[in-house]
């Protein structure tokens, strides 16, 4: 009986449609069946070049609503595609493998589950007094200065401080008297040690005491990012700075309270870069400029930025001001 019931019951898939809705329906019209999309291109006497049928990324980005969107820069077919990196600088490898984990370990602050920090008072102070001018007046700055510093967030694996960019600046004092040779030599030196094109800056106003004349070129700058930045830091930390005689390091008071530190190099120290030393005769000794180097970091205070640069190999001396 069980066998007869099993045979009599319909199969579970008989009620489903046998044809899929995704399959294109073939038309029975004779013109539709005779249509050949490749017949017209083949009928041309002269075929179009193969590049006509290739996809080309648009030259300009016309917005997110445009139907023709450019490819991502990581796509080899994109116009902005840059192959590589094939190798990473030694300083960058040391940061990602050693410095960043150690930095997070030293600055880690443990908070138990469910911990809620106490509410802090307002950073700006109101004007207290009976003076009628205090009404509807803007709040006062914090005690000790009018500069409102950045808030320091707890260090986690998401916000470990790192070097963002390096600015190299050269002020040519000899160019104030009309000597263009100072600018040419400074530009050659900056381009040799940074591998970047320099940017020329002109005086914005007339200053009698400084000898500035408005519109005259007086200084050069270079902004370094990525691989060139790490190569420059590696040369400066491992080759140039250790060769300075009786050098204690960078003053610990340097900084702008936002994680950016600056220091200077004399012309004698600039001549110690490998690119300048190997071709020292090409640069007149009296025209070699001094450099002002500003290291921009993602740290929110000078304390974290100083700790990062110390791990990279830049020493500090003197009274530490946080």
TrEMBL record:
Q: Where is the composition biased (Low complexity)?
A: 19-28
Boundaries of every Large ribosomal subunit protein uL5 C-terminal domain copy: 217-316
Q: Does the keyword Protease apply?
A: no
Cite a single GO MF annotation: structural constituent of ribosome
List GO terms (cellular component aspect). ribonucleoprotein complex; ribosome
UniProt keywords (A-Z) are: Ribonucleoprotein, Ribosomal protein
Name the GO terms of the biological process aspect: translation
The record's region (Disordered) falls at 1-81
Q: Where is the composition biased (Basic residues)?
A: 42-57
- Family according to the record: Belongs to the universal ribosomal protein uL5 family.
PANTHER family registered for this protein in UniProt? 60S RIBOSOMAL PROTEIN L11-RELATED (PTHR11994)
Protein name, UniProt field: Large ribosomal subunit protein uL5m
Q: Which organism is this entry from?
A: Cladophialophora psammophila CBS 110553
């Amino acid at each position: 009986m069980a066998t007869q019931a099993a045979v009599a019951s319909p199969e579970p898939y008989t009620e489903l449609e046998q044809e899929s809705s995704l399959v294109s329906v073939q038309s029975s019209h004779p013109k539709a069946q005779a249509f050949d999309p490749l017949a017209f291109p083949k009928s041309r006497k002269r075929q179009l070049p193969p590049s006509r049928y290739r996809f080309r990324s648009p030259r300009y980005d016309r917005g997110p609503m445009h139907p023709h969107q450019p490819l991502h820069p990581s796509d080899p077919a994109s116009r902005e595609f840059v192959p590589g990196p094939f190798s990473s600088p030694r300083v960058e490898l040391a940061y990602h493998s050693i410095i960043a984990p150690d930095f997070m370990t030293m600055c880690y602050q443990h908070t138990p589950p469910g911990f809620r920090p106490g509410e802090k008072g307002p950073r700006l102070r109101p004007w207290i007094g009976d003076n009628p001018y205090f009404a509807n007046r803007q709040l006062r700055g914090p005690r000790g200065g009018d500069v409102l510093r950045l808030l320091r967030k707890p260090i986690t694996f998401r916000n470990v401080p790192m070097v963002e960019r390096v600015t190299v600046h050269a002020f040519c004092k000899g160019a104030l008297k009309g000597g263009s040779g100072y600018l040419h030599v400074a530009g050659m030196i900056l381009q040799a040690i940074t591998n970047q094109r320099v940017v020329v800056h002109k005086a914005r106003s007339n200053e009698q005491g400084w000898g500035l004349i408005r519109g005259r070129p007086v200084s050069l700058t270079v902004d370094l990012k990525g691989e060139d930045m790490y190569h420059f830091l590696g040369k400066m930390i491992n080759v140039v700075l250790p060769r300075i005689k009786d050098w204690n390091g960078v003053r610990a008071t340097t900084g702008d309270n936002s994680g950016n530190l600056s220091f200077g190099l004399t012309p004698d120290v600039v001549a110690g870069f490998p690119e300048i030393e190997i071709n020292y005769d090409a640069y007149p000794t009296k025209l070699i400029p001094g450099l002002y180097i500003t290291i921009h970091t993602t740290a929110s205070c000078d304390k974290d930025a100083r700790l990062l640069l110390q791990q990279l190999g830049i020493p500090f001396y003197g009274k530490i001001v946080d």
